[in-house]
Amino acid sequence: MSASFASALTAARDAAASQNYPQGVLYVIATPIGNLADISLRALHVLQIVDAIACEDTRHTQGMLRSYGLDRPGSQLLAVHQHNEAEAAAGIIARLQQGQRIAYVSDAGTPGVSDPGARLCAALQAHGLRAMPLPGASSVTSAISVAGCVPPGQTDGGFVFAGFLPTKNAERQAAVQKLAAEPRCTVLLEAPHRIQDMVKALAVLGERKVTLAREITKQFEQVSTHAAQDVAAWLEAEATRSKGEFVIVLHPVELQQENGEAERVLRLLLAELPTKTAVKLTAEITGANRNTLYDRALELKRAAEGDEE
C-alpha cells in the first residue's frame, strides 16, 4: 500500500462505518479516472465490507485495490465486461438473492455511463433488486465543469452526452452532421489513436467552440478551447497534444444564429398560441430542437412581460 493512503482506510471507517449498508444490494462505485486520491471514503469502506467485487478487468481492479491496501482474493473478483455483461448478471443476481453485498466498478470513472454497468442494473431492476450508487469521478462532468459552456441567449440549455462516435469515416461524418443540428452543449469521448480523425470531422462546425480535455486528473492534464475549424491544427502543432484519453465538449450555439427561420416562426406563433403549442408547431415546421425552442420561448415571454412593466 502507498504510504499516502496508510491512514485512508481508518478515515473511511470513521466516516462511513456508521451508515447503513443493507445486504442483497449491488453497490455501484465510481473509481478514479487517473488520480488515485479521487476515491471517496465511502467507496473505500464499501470495498472492504462487500462479499465480492464485480469489475471490468480483474487484474486492473486488483492493482487498484492493492494501492489502497485492500488485497482481496481472486475468488472474490467477478469479471463483468461488455462481452459477458448479460450472462454475468445472472450470477450476480443469484448472489444478491442469497443476501450478499456485491460492489461493481468499471476500470475508471462512473459505471454505466460509457462503461459497462447499465445492463447489469437493468437486470437487477427486472428482478426487484436494488442498486445503490456511490458517486465519484466522472470524465464527462469533470470536463463540463471547466469548459465554460454558456448557452448564448439562454438561461439553461443542459447538455447531451453522445459518447463515442462511429469509427468508420462515412458514419462518423454523418454523425457529426446530426450534431451540427443540436444547439445544446454536447459531450463526446475519443481515444488517442482516433482523435486526429475526429477533430478533422468536427471542422465542419466552423466557428463553434470546442473544448478538448485530455488526461483529466492525471499529471499531464490539459484543457483547451478553440473554434472547431482550428482544433486539428492545434493538435498537430505538438505531438504530445494527441496523447491520452479525450473528452470533447461542443459548446452550445445560439438558437437565432443556428436557425433564424425557427426564431421567426416561433415569435409569430407565440403571438397567437399557447407556449407549448407554438413550440410544437415550430419544431415540426423548421426541424429545430424542441427543448431549445421551449427555453427560447420562455425567454421571449419573460422579455415581453418585462417590457410591459
Automatic annotation (TrEMBL):
Organism annotation: Comamonas kerstersii
Catalytic activity field: cytidine(1402) in 16S rRNA + S-adenosyl-L-methionine = 2'-O-methylcytidine(1402) in 16S rRNA + S-adenosyl-L-homocysteine + H(+)
Domain RsmI HTH as annotated: residue spans: 258-301
Name listed for the protein in its UniProt record: Ribosomal RNA small subunit methyltransferase I
Gene Ontology CC: one annotated term: cytoplasm
Role played: Catalyzes the 2'-O-methylation of the ribose of cytidine 1402 (C1402) in 16S rRNA.
Superkingdom, natural source: Bacteria
UniProt gene name: rsmI
Keywords assigned by UniProt, alphabetized: Cytoplasm, Methyltransferase, rRNA processing, S-adenosyl-L-methionine, Transferase
